[in-house]
């Protein structure tokens, strides 16, 4: 955990977390940085406190001491968002400090009671409110519901121009002691963006329409610095807002000129055709993300799907349905609402088939709007004729993807 002064009397306390499943579910191969902020006006406020993932606040408290702040002297907690990655520490905090005031949204107040039994000294703040910490640190608030829970607000400090939007504009990926996006080279930022897209697609994606509304609102705020609850701080506020705007747009498709190829196979029948398909794709001038299920996690697959306009699925029939891990990942992709993709599926069956039916059912039931080319299904091993059909369909798909993306621009 470390402390950095990011603006006048404004300190970031950050902790890198690794080897966990975020939300108990999402793999984070490059970890995540959790950020908390202290503003020392005449009164001291902490925004979105963090501590170790285990909820032990001692590290946070020792850092506060370095800043010559006794934890017990903190009288104001700004809770932008009650999800426990930002508020879990309050449970321990209230054992050592019984005299503090919380600022949160109306919905946040309700959740604070449900999660931590906090009912007293909660001041509800919203779009029209301000709160004065003294020494010019006048706080304003912007309600940005559902980015990522219904309670979320962004806090803006008039004195420094720092906007604290919590989950909005956040990212996975450890910052390894670096604070600002500007400290990363262009190459490093490209790599880091993969973690930002992983975070966006795994955590925030479902709420893309609300992300659009939040961005519209936040663009009106004269923010000089965007200091989120996860990941890097942005001096180039436009860059991260534009990036998030684009990620939100990918929900409805088209996204980028990319194809995600998801496949699974039990005994190598479908796999034989996958190998051929990959050779065909190698000759095409298009970015392809390849994932085998169940080996690759939902989160990894979803990250690729989010930026892809085209999807290729390859899996056999299993007990009259799809190969199960494919069904599971597609359900999750559907629930995150990666909509209107151009798609093609091929795969093996033994006697009855059934994968196609389940695929069509998921596409309809979750209103995914994926537009499928005629599938190629084969009994047992694929024949050379099947291989040729697959090759032809892949070429059609690549052309469709390019055309769709070009028409968007
Ligand atoms: C557990 C299991 C269940 C299966 N269920 C079906 C089925 O319901 N209908 C069908 O047509 N084939 C079924 N099959 C046959 C497979 O679809 C067939 O063996 C196919 O070639 C497997 O392709 P793969 O080697 O790419 O996994 C099943 C196979 C297994 C092992
Ligand atoms: Fe959250
Ligand atoms: Fe969060």
Automatic annotation (TrEMBL):
Keyword Hydrolase: yes
Keywords of the record: Hydrolase
The Flavodoxin-like domain, residue ranges: 259-398
TM region(s), chain numbering: none
GO molecular function: electron transfer activity; FMN binding; hydrolase activity; metal ion binding; oxidoreductase activity, acting on NAD(P)H
CDD domains: flavodiiron_proteins_MBL-fold
Pfam families registered for this protein in UniProt: ODP
Keyword presence, Hydrolase: yes
Signal peptide range: none
Domain of life: Bacteria
Family that this chain belongs to: In the N-terminal section; belongs to the zinc metallo-hydrolase group 3 family.
Name of the protein in question: MBL fold hydrolase
Protein source organism: Anaerocolumna chitinilytica
């Amino acid at each position: 955990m470390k402390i950095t002064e990011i603006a006048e009397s404004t300190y970031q306390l950050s902790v890198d977390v690794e080897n966990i499943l975020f939300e108990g579910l999402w793999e984070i191969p490059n970890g995540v940085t959790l950020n908390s902020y202290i503003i020392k006006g005449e009164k001291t406020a902490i925004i979105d406190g963090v501590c170790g993932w285990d909820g032990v606040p001692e590290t946070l408290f020792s850092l506060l001491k370095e800043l010559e702040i006794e934890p017990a002297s903190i009288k104001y907690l700004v809770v932008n968002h009650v999800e426990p990655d930002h508020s879990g520490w309050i449970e321990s905090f209230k054992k050592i400090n019984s005299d503090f005031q919380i600022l949160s949204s109306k919905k946040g107040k309700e959740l604070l009671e449900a999660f931590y039994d906090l009912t007293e000294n909660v001041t509800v703040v919203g779009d029209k409110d301000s709160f004065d910490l003294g020494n010019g640190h006048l706080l304003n608030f912007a309600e940005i519901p559902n980015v990522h829970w219904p309670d979320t607000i962004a806090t803006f400090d008039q004195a420094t121009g720092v906007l604290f939007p919590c989950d909005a504009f956040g990212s996975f990926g450890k910052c390894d002691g670096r604070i600002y996006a500007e400290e990363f080279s262009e190459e490093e930022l490209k790599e880091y963006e993969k973690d930002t897209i992983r975070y966006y697609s795994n955590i925030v994606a479902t709420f893309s329409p609300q992300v659009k509304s939040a961005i519209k609102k936040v663009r009106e705020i004269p923010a000089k610095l965007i200091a989120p609850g996860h990941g890097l701080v942005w001096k180039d506020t436009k860059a991260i807002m534009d990036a998030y705007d684009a990620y939100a747009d990918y929900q409805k498709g088209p996204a980028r000129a990319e194809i995600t190829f998801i496949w699974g196979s039990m005994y190598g029948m479908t796999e034989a055709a996958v190998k051929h398909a990959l050779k065909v794709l190698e000759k095409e001038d298009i970015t392809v993300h390849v994932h085998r299920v169940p080996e690759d996690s939902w989160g990894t697959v979803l990250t690729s799907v989010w930026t892809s306009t085209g999807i290729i699925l390859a899996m056999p029939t299993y007990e009259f349905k799809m190969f199960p891990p494919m069904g599971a990942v597609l359900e999750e992709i559907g629930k995150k609402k990666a909509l209107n993709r151009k798609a093609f599926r091929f795969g093996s069956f033994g006697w009855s088939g059934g994968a196609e039916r389940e695929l069509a059912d998921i596409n309809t039931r979750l209103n995914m709007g994926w537009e499928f080319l005629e599938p190629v299904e084969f009994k047992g091993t694929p024949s050379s004729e099947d291989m040729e059909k697959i090759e032809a369909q892949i070429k059609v798909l690549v052309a469709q993807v390019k055309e769709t993306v070009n028409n968007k621009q």
